[in-house]
Predict the 3D structure of the following.
Amino acid sequence: MTVIQAVLRGILTLFVASVFIWSLVLLAPGDPADRVLNARGILEPHPSQVTQVREELGLAGQPHERYLEWVGSAVRGNFGASWVTGRPVAEEFFQRLPASARLTVAAIVIPLVFALALALLSALFRDRWPDAVSRGVSVLLNVVPSFIIGVALLDIVVVRLGQGQVMADGTWGTVLLPALALSAGPAAVWSRILRASLLEANGSAFVRLSRARGATRLRQVVSHGIRNALTPFLTVIGVGVAGLLGGAPIIESVFSWPGVGLYTVEAIVARDLPVIQTFVLFAAILFIGVSILVDLLVRRIDPRVAPSRGGMQRRRAVLRQLDENRGVR
Amino acid sequence: MTQKRPSSRTARVEVAGLALVAAAALSACGLVSTEPAGGETDDVLEIASPTVINSLDPVEDGSWPSQLGYGELLMRANDDGTVEPWLLQDLNKLSDTKWKLELRPGIKFHNGDELDASALADALNHHLKESAAFKAMLPGAKAEADGDLSVELLTRNPVSDIPELLADPYMFPVYDSSAVEDSDDKDDLLSAGIYTGPYIVKKLGNREMSLKKNPSHWGPERRTKSVIIKFIKDEQARVFAVQNGEADIARIPPTEAARTLRGRSDAFFKAADHGTLMTRLVMNLREDLTSDKQVRKAISLGINYSEIASSVVEKGTYDEAQGMYPTMLPFALKNQRTNRGLAERVLDDGGWKKDQTGARKKDGKELEISLLTYPLQPDYAQMAVAIQSQLKPLGIRVTIRQVDDIKAAMQTQDDWNLAIWGEGTVNYSFDPNPRLRIHELSDGEYNYGGINDARLDKLINEVAREGNESIRHETLKRIQQIVIEEEAYEAFVGVKKWNYIVSAAWKDFRPTTNALLVETATRSL
C-alpha cells in the first residue's frame, strides 16, 4: 500500500466515523435544551426557558442537512459556536489543546519508560522473581480502572502526603499524577507485549548465534531483542495513543486538567453538540494520522514488510523465513 | 533436570535491572510539584463549584450573581421560609395588579451608576422581554418609574407571589440594563460593571472566577477581601480540594462525604437545618395499574419515608418527607404517612388479593409496577431499591429501570408506573405557585403523570391570584389533601438539604436554606 492509498483509506474512515458518531448523538435520549440549561446552572428550568433554548439551538433542521452544513464549515475551519458558551468552538478547543498535548506526551513517555524497564526485567530474568514481580505489576495496572487510580493518587499523594495539587493547572509541573493515572493501563499492556516480543526474539537463530559468539545477556536483549520487538510494539503504541485520548476526558475531569478532555466531558453533560462533534473529528483525525505514521515507520524500520514490486511473493518468502526461524527454536 | 544456579554476573545484571526500574520511578517522581497548595488566608474565600460560569449575562447566566456574591435581588428568602426586602426598602401591593417597589437609597452598580427608579424599571422591562422564565411568570407585565426610588410593577392578571418571585435567584438579578445593551458581546460585560453585589468580578476564565470586595457597597462589611470560585467538575475532587487547602467550601459534594469525613479534622460536612429540595415520586395515571387509586394509595402508604431519610440515604443529608412541602413552611401539611396495615387493607378492598407466593393479583393480573430512576442523582438509585424492598411485603413487585433522561422517559414512554424525580415543589424562595402550575395543573408542561382534576385546576388558579395570605394558605392545604390523601396523585420520597464541605478555617459556616452561598458565608463567619 502506498502513502497515497493510506491517506485515501484514512479519509474514507474519517467520513464513516463522523457519520456514525453524528447518528449516535442524534439518537441519544433527552432534550439538548434541558442539558444546556442545566449546564448554565438552571437545574429545574421553566418550560418556557426550554422552548426558548430549543429555538436558539436551531434544532428544527433535518439531520442530514445539519450534518452536511457542519462538514462544509469544518473543512473551512469553522466548527460552529458552543451551545453553552456561545463562543466559537475552534477558539475554545485550540485554547485547551496545549494542556491536553502535554498530558498525552507525558502519558506516552511514562508508560514507555515503565514498559521498557518491566519488559527488560522479565526478559533478563525469565521465570524468576523479578519476572514474577514485573508480571504482577502489569496485571495490577491493567485491571484497575484509570479513574480509580486517579482518585487514589489524589487521596494518597496529594491529600495525605501533601504533594501536588488537586486542581492541576495544565503545566508540566502538575502533569505527573494525571499522566500516571492515564498511563497505567497502557504501561501494563505495552510491557507485556514487549516482554513477549523480547522472549520470542531471544529464541531466534540470530540471538542464539550472538550468544554463541559470546555476547552478554544484556547485549543480546538490547541489541537484537529490542530491535526485533520494535515492529509489534510500535503498532501497539499507535493504538495506545488513541486509547489515551479516549481515557483523557475522565482523567482530566478527576484532576480538573484544563484540556480538551474536560471540555468534552462538560459538553457531553450539556449535550453541546458542536463541541462533541469537534472532539470526535479531532480524535478520528489523530487516530487515523497515528495509524498511517506507524504504518510508514514500521515499513521504514522493518524491511521485511516494506512494499516493493512483486511484493506479495517477496512478503511470502519473508514470512516463510520467519516460520523457519521459529521452527529452529 | 537440575536448576542452574545464578552466577555472580547474573546477580549483577539483576541489580542493574532493579536499579533501572528504581531510576525510572525516581526520575518520574522528580516531576512532582512541590509548590504549596492553594492560598488559604483569611482574606480569600475559595469555593469549589462544579459548574463553569460562562458569562455575566443576566438572562442566560442570571442565577449566579446572587448566589456567588456579585449580584443581588430585590427580595431575599429567609431560613424560615419567609421573604424580606433586600435591595428594596419596601414592597407594597396597591391593587391585585399593581405593586409598589421602594428602593433603598445609595445603591450603586459596580460601574458607579446609581440604581434609581428609572434604572430599576428599565432592568425589569428588559428582563420581562428577554427572560423566558420571568416572562412566563408575569405575562404582559411592565414596570414604570414613579419618583426617584419608587417603581410601579403592573401585571396583566392578579399575581399573588410577587415577593417570592423577586426573591428567587433564578428569576431577576438586579442589573444595569443600559450597560448590558451597550455591550457588544458577553465578554464586554466583565468590564461593564452591571451588578450591585458586595463583590465585583475581576476575572472570569474557564477554570475560575475571581472577585474583589466592592468598596462602595451599600451593605454590611464583608469578612473576606476576595472570593475565588474554582470550577472543579469531579465531586470527589472538590472534597479533596477542601482537604488539601485549595478550597474553603465545596458546593454540591457527594452525599457519602457525610460519612467518609466523619471524625476528620481537615474537612467537615455541613448541612442546612431544614431540607427544602423535595424529591417527587410521580405516579403515571395513564398506565393501567397506577390509574387505580387504591394501588396509588397503597404505594403512598407502604413507603417508609422515615427509614429512607434516616438509613437509606446518608444520614443528615435528607429530611423525612412528611407531605408535599418542607415542614418549615407555614402552609405545609404533614399528611403523608406510612401505614402498612392500611395499605394492605386498601389493596384488599380494591380486589388485589395475595396468592401463596405473597404476590397480589386481580383478574389474573399481577401487581407488578415499574419504577424509573436516573443516574444524575445517585441517591435516587438507593431510594428506588428501598421502595422496592418496602413494597414487596405488601405484594407489590417493583421493577427498577434506570433511564438516562428522566424527563424524556416520562414524556415519551408509556410503560412506567412510578418515577423518582428531583423537581422540587417550591422554588428557591419557597414559592409553591410556579411548580404547581407546571406539575399539577391539568395542562402543566411537566405534568407527566397525567393529573387531570378540575378541582385542583381551580385551586391552583386561586393560589396564583389570591392576595390574602391566610386564604392562600388554606387553599394550598386543600391542594395537599387532594394530592396526597384523597387521590394519591404523587408521593414525596425525601427532602434534600443544601449541603457543603468546609475546611477547618470555615468550620463555623452555617449553611442556610436559600441558595445565597457567598452572601451567607461572608456575613456569618
The mean pLDDT of chain B is 90. The first helix of chain B runs from residue 8 to 29. Chain B touches chain A through 65 residues (CB under 8 Å). The radius of gyration of chain B is 28 Å.
